[in-house]
Each structure stands twice: as structure tokens, then as C-alpha cells.
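look at this stuff:

>
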Amino acid sequence: MNEPNSVADTAANPASQDKLVPRNLPDLRQKKVPSQQRAVETFERILAACGDLLGEVGIERLSTNLVCQRAGISPPALYQYFPNKYAILCELAERLMRSQNGLLKPWATAETWRLPEPELAASIADLFIRTLQLTEQMPAGIWITRALRAVPTLQEVRHSSHELVTDLLVQPFMQAYPQADQTEVRLTLRLGIDALYAAQELLFDNPSLEPRAVARTMAAMVTGQLVKLRQSE
């Protein structure tokens, strides 16, 4: 089976209600979650094959047929779990973002937000570098990061993740500075998250840039805005 030329050509799959899928876009919901060992191995082979192929052929040329060939499985075996290539990309994207959020959760504390400005900027820069390194080490991490912005089907996944991260950061900030304007705090943090992800993509697209220099500059910009909010108590 070939992938549709247009994202609007793929019919929605009603098998699961786990994810919200925008109208006229491909279904991102898994058809089935593997439980038996053999099924889990097949599932993981599909993801590994998709990750490998992304770096070789790119998002547009990627197809479920190519994934099946690389994974050594039949199309019916793949379609037991994923309705289309976008659902596979979605699973890879969610795994990447869960790993990135795993770095963020222990960092996002009231104690972190109370750090003096230079120390807070250094801490944000360090978190940025660790997130960058994790993304580079994840299977197809760079390509998945690009896909989350470039592929309309996946943009809601990126948006939802950034909203989740914003919530994770707002709570300890308000705990540290309860008199700050929460609306402004949320807006500043949301913009900061998007800016830091944009800086990460910039490094992927322009390897001549020095990552730590980018990290320091971005961290200083974000910290400057956050310190203003702290001072507005």
C-alpha cells in the first residue's frame, strides 16, 4: 500500500479515541498496543526502521512500504499497529518528547527559579545543551524535531507537548513568586520554550554554529524576561 500524496487523502481510523485528530488529516492513533513479546519486537522493528529511513530518504519520500521492507515484515503486519506513516512518526515524536521532559521535570522546581540571574541563565543553558544532546542521540531525533514543525499532521502533537511543558514550569515559578502575574508568567515561559526549540533547530540546520554560544545567548534572553517578572512581585 502506498502513502497518500496529500495528507487529506488518508481516511480516519475509528479504532481508538486516544488522540485528537484534526479533520481532514491522517489518523495518528495506534490501532493496537502490542502485548506479547513477539508483537512488541515487531512494533519496535517498525519504529527502528522508520527512524533509520527518515535520515536516508526524508519525510516526503518515507512510506509504509519502505518501512515494511526495512523492518522485514509484511504490510498487514505493520497495519495491525499503525494506519499510516504519520502515526509511526507520531509515536517516535512522543517518545522523543517524553525523554526530553524527563530531563525537565527534576529541573523545574521553585529552588531553580529562585537562583540569582547569572546562575539561572547558566542552569537554563545547561538544560538546553543536555536536551540538545539527548535529541541528537535519540533514533531519528533530529528528523523528528524537524517533522514536528514541518508536517501539519504533527503540529498539534508539538503544540500539546509545549503546553504541557509550560504547565510544568509555571507551577514552581508561581510557588517561588506567588505575587507575579500568572498570565504574564505563562506567556513568557511559552514563548521561551518555543524560542529554545527554534534555537535547537537552528543548530541542526547550521552545524557551523557553536552550541554553547547559542545556549548562552538564548538562556540570557529568556532569563532576562523571567527576572523582570520576578521583580514585578
